[in-house]
Amino acid sequence: MAGAAPLPASLKVTPGNPIAKGATPTADGVNFAIFSRHASQLYLCLYAASHDDEPVHEIALDPRRHKTGDIWHCHVGGLKPGALYLWRADGPFDPARGHRFNRNRALLDPYAKALTDGAWDIGQALGYDPDSPDKDLSLSRFRDDSLIPKCVVVDSAFDWQGDAPLNYPLKDCVIYETHVRGLTRGLLGGEAAGNAATAPTPRVPRGLPRVAHPGTYRGVTEMIDYFVDLGVTSLEFLPIHEFDSKERFRRNPKTGEFVANYWGYSSLAFFAPKVTYAYVDGEPFDEADPARQVREFKYMVRELHKAGIEVILDVVFNHTAEGNELGPTLNFRGLDNSVYYILDEDRRRYKNFSGCGNTLNCNHPVMRNLIHECLAYWVVDMHVDGFRFDLGSILGRDAAGRLLENPPVIESIAENPILRDTKIIAEAWDAGGAYQVGSFPGGRWAEWNDRYRDDIRRFWRGEKGSALHLATRITGSSDLYLRDGRKPFHSINFVTAHDGFTLNDLVSYARKHNEENGEDNRDGADHNLSYSNGAEGPSDDPAIERRRDRQARNFLATLLLSIGTPMLLGGDEIRRTQRGNNNAYCQDNPTSWYDWERAAEHAGLFDFCAGLIAFRRRHPAFRRPEFFTGQDHDSDSLPDIAWFDERGRAPDWTAINLTLAALIDGSEGGSDTAVTDNDFYLMFNAAPHPVAFSIPNHPHGGIWALVIDTAAPPPQGIIPESEWTPLSPQGALTLHAKSLAVLASIGPGSNLESARP
């Protein structure tokens, strides 16, 4: 092509090896390998800089020498890590048969381990002529390689200092869902640094570390002391696989500015960490070090692991950024559209079970292999501890979009020997109507339990008759997980998540306020089970704020005292607000960024949350690996759980009550090995008035002590174990309206003779 120079003598092309896909450095060059079954010719393009609109060298691969089966491959001797490249694929442009090859389009390597930063305009990288009346049936002859980032040849060397994934048992985990950029983007602590520092005045809330690299992987590491103080075991990051954050959807009607792709659920490259989450220190990023983001991600993981904190990635193997037939041609579409995607009966179109224009053909062996190799890369090379699979039910669909009984990719992920100790968590539904919470196939998969979210919200909102569902959810959701042999910890319990209201907004808004998304407030869920507690949005009324604080404590206490694996939405511990926006996917601004000034304002809630996590960690009765049975284990023990109403009697589960109590036997933790713990008596009052709870005598003469009370303002809400004292009088305890209390057994006859030191 015009502009591409002959290959210099310093670079020598040989057939190479088809085994290792992507770009793999060798002792004397770089090996390239890529899949395309239906292409007639592939071209490897080499570039001098990320913004180049055409390659400096283009290497045509001879299918007789450079193709083994469906893998095209070559070795370029003399090429070094840091080299920039893309591919071109020639072949049939026949949309009616599902083929959309276009020799004019430069393509990303699906196995690229890093992409360059730059002024991308991927929405213009179309394989068809948008001005043609035939639209996607036309073939674009427009060429401009500067529209998309370049792939980077990555040297994987890194000093891990002996690090390995932590892989805690799920029952012992407390997951904190957060966003790499939003976590620290609004937090500056000194001189402005790098590509994330534009705020006019650095500010550091009381008690938080100084963050010199806000909005970056390095910024996360500067928050480690905060996470240790909070007590969480695992950070679950929204997508960090490369995506186009400048993808433009529509304008914010209030500001007139384009909204952005903030959450990142639109992957460009599944092996590549997001480039703009790596900090820049002075010189231009690409020329300085085009693969810095890989080392920055590894540094973050290593430092988190040193502090005992796991890393879980939200992965999006259900669709790509290429959209429907009118979307751009970036990689999969141009390399082998009919293999990588689930196509409609009219093969011009795409099945859209993701709600984002296309659906990956996950159970095709080629795509299945890519998913396995990608997961193995992030575990082996990047040391991550687990994955949360966005719209995981799509992984269970066949090439026609039908749900399979035993989907190959789901089962093989569960059985993959490399991933045996890795957490695998499914969002067990998709946008095509599949809903598999409690029935997700594959054996050892954990699941986001939205039934838990809704039933806990209903109870604390005061919906009559919700106590029965509360009982089911706080004991591990046996209705969902017991029947197929899974355990309580396979239920990922949550009250809030990135998709929906924050905890503050759950107790401060009766309805969503998504006007700034530019969709006339039509987007986002309408059924939120929220309650404003007296005013819509912010309030200066102390009584309203006290009710909101108490409800926030109720939700946190319920979550962290439930059997199962708790997940906190990042910032809930300081009442982070999105101003009523329950779908902030496009708000890369203070709506989504954590406002750390609230950390000082709501320090009491942080302390309460941290105290609950520490309480859960100290008491195995709340981390049972097995379901309750309601039966005595032997003649000297209590039933493992017994239920009561506020009068101390067996509850009438058909009644429309708003109260419930439970006695938990702590002498046996539900495992093969006896675990000694206090017995506990939990009392829940969702009524709008105080309720006197009768307290049963401890069956073996133990004495009850009040240990948690959500009606008490911090720091009185959680009583240190060294200060546990007998409850007097023993017969009854009046719970404040909308509150929760926990008693623990102490003294002679209890499992523990006295409080732990």
Task: Provide an overview of this structure.
This protein is an alpha/beta fold. It has 15 helices and 28 strands. It has an 8-stranded parallel barrel with strand order 12-13-16-17-18-19-20-21. Helix 13 (542-561) packs parallel to helix 15 (603-618). Residues 190-204 and 753-757 have low confidence and may be disordered.
| Overall average residue pLDDT | 92
Distance between the termini: 77 Å
Which strand order spans the largest sheet, edge to edge or round the barrel? 12-13-16-17-18-19-20-21
Percent of residues in helices: 10-25%
Question: Topology of this structure?
Answer:
Layout: E1 12-14, E2 22-26, E3 29-35, E4 41-47, E5 57-61, E6 67-68, E7 71-77, E8 84-90, E9 93-94, E10 99-100, E11 151-152, E12 175-178, H1 180-184, H2 217-221, H3 224-230, E13 234-237, E14 241-243, E15 267-273, H4 285-288, H5 292-306, E16 310-315, H6 332-340, H7 365-380, E17 386-389, H8 408-415, E18 423-426, E19 446-449, H9 450-461, H10 467-474, H11 478-481, E20 491-493, H12 503-506, H13 542-561, E21 565-569, H14 598-601, H15 603-618, E22 641-644, E23 659-664, E24 680-685, E25 691-694, E26 703-709, E27 732-735, E28 739-746
Parallel strand pairs: 12-13, 12-21, 13-16, 16-17, 17-18, 18-19, 19-20, 20-21
Antiparallel strand pairs: 1-7, 2-3, 3-7, 4-5, 4-8, 6-7, 8-11, 9-10, 14-15, 22-23, 23-24, 24-28, 25-27, 26-28
